[in-house]
Design a protein that fits this description.
Layout: E1 5-11, H1 15-25, E2 29-30, E3 34-36, E4 41-47, E5 52-58, H2 64-71, E6 76-84, H3 87-96, E7 108-109, E8 115-119, E9 128-133
Parallel strand pairs: 1-5, 6-9
Antiparallel strand pairs: 1-6, 2-4, 3-4, 4-5, 7-8, 8-9
Catalytic activity: (R)-methylmalonyl-CoA = (S)-methylmalonyl-CoA
Organism: Stappia albiluteola
Protein name: methylmalonyl-CoA epimerase
Length: 134
């Protein structure tokens, strides 16, 4: 059901500083910052030959990323994102097997302009999983 790894997301307290580390120390190509108000984050993507790294910074006081950073002030891996061919079919199959879809269960549009859903980390070995329609 899952396809390729789309990205690994890292929550950071300072997007500009984290971007500079990837750009200046590791020599990575980084996208411009993109505000995602529906998700409460500002993101940049680091392009790699085989996938992407997404850096996430809280956007607004109610950002879900802020609670993560309160527990881990220096940041850390927040989630992994896998591609699926049909997000609604994937959601329905996962729910039939007992997996919990976060939020309303309806896909939202993610940073790549495609439908996304998040799956409860307790159902996936402590890892928050994002599904993105390919």
């Amino acid at each position: 059901m899952i396809g390729r790894l789309n990205h690994v997301a890292i929550a950071v307290p300072d997007l500009e500083k984290a971007s500079a580390t990837y750009r200046d120390v590791l020599g990575a190509t980084i996208s411009a910052p993109q505000a995602e108000p529906d998700h409460g984050v500002t993101v940049v993507f680091i392009e790699l030959p085989n996938t992407k790294i997404e850096l996430l910074e809280p956007l607004g006081e109610n950002s879900p990323i802020q609670a993560f950073l309160d527990r881990s002030p220096s940041g850390g891996i927040h989630h992994v994102c896998y591609e699926v061919d049909d997000i609604l079919a994937a959601r329905d199959r996962l729910k039939e097997q007992g997996a919990r879809v976060l939020g309303s269960g309806e896909p939202k549009i993610g940073a790549h302009g495609k439908p996304v859903l998040f799956l409860h980390p307790k159902d996936f070995n402590g890892t928050l999983v994002e599904l993105e329609q390919a």
